[in-house]
Amino acid sequence: MRAALLRKFGAPLDLAEVTVAPPGPGEVLVRVAASGVCGSDLKAIAGTSPVVTHLPCVLGHESAGTVEAVGPGVASVRPGDAVVVAMNGPCGKCRECVRGRVHLCGGRARMAAIMGLTADGTTRLRAGGEVVRPYIGIGSFAEKAVVGEAMCVKVGKDDPLDLLALTACAVVTGVGAVLNTARVEPGASVLVVGCGGVGLNVVQGAVLAGATTIIAADIAESKLRLAREFGATHTIAADDLADRVGAIVRGGADYAFDVTGVPGVLAAAFAATRPGGTTVMVGSPAADAAVQIPPGLLFGSRRLMGTQGGDANPARDLPLLAALHRAGRLRLDALVSERLPLDAVNDAVRHVKEGGVARSVLVF
Which of 21, 31, 240, 318 is most buried (CB neighbours < 10 A)? Predict the structure, then answer.
């Protein structure tokens, strides 16, 4: 197959021929139909992702496609099935899975996949004799991907895979942060800081939850315009958040979501919540970053939380998102700023880095 390889941190991706071994036990070979380009891919390219420790690597993790072959023991999907490839494949047996917190699964296969390996410590990919690792066990900047069975979530054969690919990361992370992590209730006031691909889905999640005041903050007017299209009731510049939010909602917002990954912004979002309010860190700061929170704000029973991929249960949440899209209650088409072929992967990466797109999607 053809794939875009990261061979050197900070360098453009290299289009190359990659050999794919047949899927092993519990594995599925998926012919990729579409793959979104995410900020996490940019971190991997820059060399700041803690899970990319071996090069070359096939990036990409937000994808959907068609099952081409299955390995021994696979029963939930078969060749020809349309699937969204989830970012994680819970084992269903570990302590967290048994407690229903599958996003925190510590099973061997999932932990290996995070580092780009199968459960037996190998990969199914080679390029000119070199071992190639797929990013978090997916590697969807390629024509095919070998993934764990639990990562394959069936969708309708007539569903638009170029749109449903986005549910695997941007959509489930944003909507899940609202519904699963914060559990926003009807009538609440919500602040969303950072209105890129994930932030717009936090806005959509707030609409689904029944929030009546949804304040979107960003430094780019183009993204604020999009936020209004997706349901924001107010838009503000992303500075002096506490004052700007307080002018709209007396005392501060009930919920704040920081999607920027900037520690100072997270602290400002926290300060813009009312006593008893909740702030969710959706964007991920650098591993060595520190967040400074005035202790006095914590005495107001304010909560600061993190989320991992929207704390999603893929088998439950991805079909729900597909159904909401079919019902016209979840906008996916407006998230796609451009569709590009694999040959233009470096253009897609540049556009995402420049911040001028909600989502660039590679289509095969």
Answer: 318
Helix (H) or strand (E) holding 36: strand 27-37
Q: Give 336's Cβ-side CA count (13 Å radius).
A: 21
Report whether 90 contacts 137 (CB < 8 A).
no
pLDDT digits (tens, 9 = 90+) for 61-112: 999 999 999 999 999 999 999 999 999 899 999 999 999 999 999 999 999 9
Spatial separation of the C-alpha atoms in residues 332 and 23, rounded to whole Å? 31
Q: Are residues 19 and 150 in the same domain?
A: yes
165, part of any domain:
no
Residues 150 and 210 in one domain: no
User: What pTM did the predictor assign?
Assistant: 0.94
User: Does residue 44 contact residue 171 with C-beta atoms inside 8 Å?
Assistant: no
* Distance in angstroms (rounded) separating the CA atoms of residues 60 and 166: 12
Q: Are residues 126 and 230 in the same domain?
A: no
What single letter denotes the amino acid at residue 12?
P
Identify the weakest region by mean pLDDT among 148-152, 337-341, 357-361.
357-361
The whole-angstrom separation of Cα 5 and Cα 57 is: 5
Number of domains in the chain: 2
Give CA–CA dist 154/169, Å, rounded. Answer: 16
At 296-316, the pLDDT tens digits run 898 889 999 999 999 999 999
Annotate 166-191 with DSSP letters as a single string.
GGGTHHHHHHHIIIIII-PPTT-EEE
In a domain, 319, yes or no: no
Q: Which residues contact 288 (CB under 8 A, 6 or more apart)?
A: none
pLDDT of residue 287 exceeding 80 = no
